[in-house]
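Lab channel / #folding
Pinned by the channel admin:
"Please post every new chain as: sequence first, then the structure tokens as a reply. Keep commentary short and put observations after the output so the thread stays searchable."

First post following the new format, from NK:
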Amino acid sequence: MGIFTKALQNIGSIVRVAGTGGVNAVQSRLASAGLFPGGIAGISRKPLGSNAGSPGSTGDWAVKLTLARQTYSDLFGASGVTAGLTSSDNGMRFPTTPFINLQHTSNYNQIGLMHNNYPYQAYQNSQVQQITISGDFPV
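Reply from TO:
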């Protein structure tokens, strides 16, 4: 009787495992391959950080450009002209709100498909063209 009970327990566990695979077959295959829901093992999704948004508690919408410490000292270190415009954290603060223009393009290849009147547009690449920042500096 003990062998029969043990066999029933083994069959029950097999049915349970097969049942979970039937509910979500894709997740089952990914898990058995060692992949996570994102498809890449060991890499978890992280939100992208951004400083854009509402102003802080001071209500200041001013734009500030900051550079790496070495780059800042190479460009503006010996210059007295920018002394009034620079802040303590190696940046330049615009006294008025500047116009910021971002330009970018996306390139596509045309692929002719059989039995189709129109070519298929396949994504090739994209690139950032120019970032232009212009504003007035009142004196």
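NK: Strands lie at 64-66, 91-93, 99-111, 120-134.
TO: also worth noting, The chain is about 25% helix and 25% strand.
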